[in-house]
Amino acid sequence: xxxxxKCWLFTTWFLILFFSFPFWISFLEQRFGPTxxxxxxxxxxxxxxxxxxxxxxxxxxxxxxxxxxxxMAWYYPWPRKICGHCGRDHRAVEDRSAR
Length: 99
Ligand SMILES: [Zn+2]
Known about the structure:
Blueprint: H1 3-32, H2 34-54
């Protein structure tokens, strides 16, 4: 599976979570009170961090959700097809050296 496909799988999951947010956050609040909201918020934030740390260009390490390695860079909610730094095609199926 290509990095691009993996990123889209994660983005789909992220969108499902996003639209079901009112349901699971109220469930957590009923179950655990204000702590539940904190748990939900932490769960949500961890997804953003996960997104930036796990999905990386095998050549240069730039996440496909970011436009370039510059200080002023855009973040996208969906992955880029081509790496913004080294120009690698993320749609290409990875070889064995790049996990
Ligand atoms: Zn790259």
